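Morning F.,

Quick status update on the modeling queue. The single chain you submitted on Monday has been processed. Sequence for confirmation:
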Amino acid sequence: MKIIIVEDEFVQRRSLQVLLSKSGHEVVDAINGEEAWQCLQTDPIRLVITDWLMPVMNGLELIQRIRAANWSYYTYIIILTSKDAKSSIVTGLQSGADDYL
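Structure tokens below.
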């Protein structure tokens, strides 16, 4: 499966990329939501793992753009963030994420 990791912190992005690649997935990475959005315009990636707090375009803005897109396929989205307050979890899932870690 092709997966895009959207994370501005290099070490976290690279760690997840190595783990998923070793599991047999094709991994694309982006340093912010805008870069990921540009990639998703030309490449129908079905799974997005995104951080919440990033420069340029944050994870919630990316999720909202993906959900507003009129693509012929469904894109699964996981928010992977350190924000662990119940209100943050609710906000993340209400924004359109499928899961929150």
